[in-house]
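Practice problem 4.
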């Protein structure tokens, strides 16, 4: 989790991390505010798996993975067919990505029942078995698979009992999708991850907003719904240049004016909390007011 002070503000340790990353963004190509489908040319990796496979592919944001399996009478573990896949997507600079898993599965095991008790395909975003905050969905029979997570990993596991009798087939696409963060140098909307769907857990997003010369930054929040304070402290929150956080169901001042050419906009959510809808903020760049000076009189 992220280190916080008792007031709910970011600690000096995290401040230093953000400043280092901020500095590292100098010279980085600007990222579109909502770059879904606008990333670099997409490449595909196709894996045909067998019983006994235990794989850990890593994906770049512009890659997606297709995993297929058909059969069961192969290398078995203790008489069962077991396949394990852990797919990770790597962040790009300060841009964060989640994962979609889509496809279809057929698991034929009469003993499994509707609760998938014996044979199943499981998709999860848990880091490991000790992770109590993640989600796991089991599929059996003949089903369509649709699993979305704001985590940067998914775990796919097939357990097929008695593969000499039972069978399984699946074809799954694992695709990264943009969540949040990056460099913003054009006017447009910034949204919480997956808006208008509720944002995910345990997220830390930061955008570096850079205005053109002789302009300043304004943010207009048309939507703002985060979890409310608990014991006077913000849980999920937004901050601007690491100042006091804002949270709850409404923002006191939806229009925010920053008399600067750059701004660090941070959004954070905690691990264990029901999620809210999130926010929409329009970024605009306004001309700076001319200073009344002697030079301005001679050079209008």
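Answer key:
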């Amino acid at each position: 989790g992220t280190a916080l002070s008792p007031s709910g503000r970011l600690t000096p340790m995290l401040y230093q991390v953000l400043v280092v990353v901020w500095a590292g963004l100098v010279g980085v190509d600007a990222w579109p505010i909502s770059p879904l489908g606008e990333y670099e040319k997409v490449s595909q990796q196709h894996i045909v798996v067998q019983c006994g496979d235990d794989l850990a592919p890593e994906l770049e944001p512009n890659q997606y993975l297709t995993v297929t399996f058909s059969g069961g009478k192969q290398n078995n573990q203790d008489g069962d067919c077991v396949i394990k896949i852990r797919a990770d997507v790597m962040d790009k600079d300060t841009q964060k990505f989640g994962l979609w898993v889509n496809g279809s599965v057929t698991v034929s095991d009469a003993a499994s029942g509707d609760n998938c008790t014996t044979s199943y395909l499981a998709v999860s975003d848990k880091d490991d078995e000790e992770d109590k905050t993640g989600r796991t969905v089991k599929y059996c029979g003949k089903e369509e698979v649709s699993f979305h997570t704001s985590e940067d990993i998914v775990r796919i596991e097939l357990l097929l009992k008695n593969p000499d009798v039972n069978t399984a087939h699946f074809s799954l696409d694992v695709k990264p999708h943009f969540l949040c963060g990056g460099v913003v140098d054009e006017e447009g909307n910034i949204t919480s991850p997956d808006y208008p769907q509720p944002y995910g857990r345990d997220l830390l997003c930061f955008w570096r907003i850079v205005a053109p010369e002789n302009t300043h930054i304004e943010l207009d929040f048309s939507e703002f719904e985060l979890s409310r304070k608990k014991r006077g402290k913000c849980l999920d929150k937004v901050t601007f240049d690491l100042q006091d956080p804002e949270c709850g169901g409404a923002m006191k001042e939806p229009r925010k004016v920053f008399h600067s050419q750059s701004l660090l906009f941070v959004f954070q959510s905690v691990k264990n909390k029901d999620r809210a809808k999130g926010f929409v903020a329009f970024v605009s760049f306004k001309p700076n007011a001319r200073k009344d000076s002697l030079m301005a009189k001679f050079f209008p």
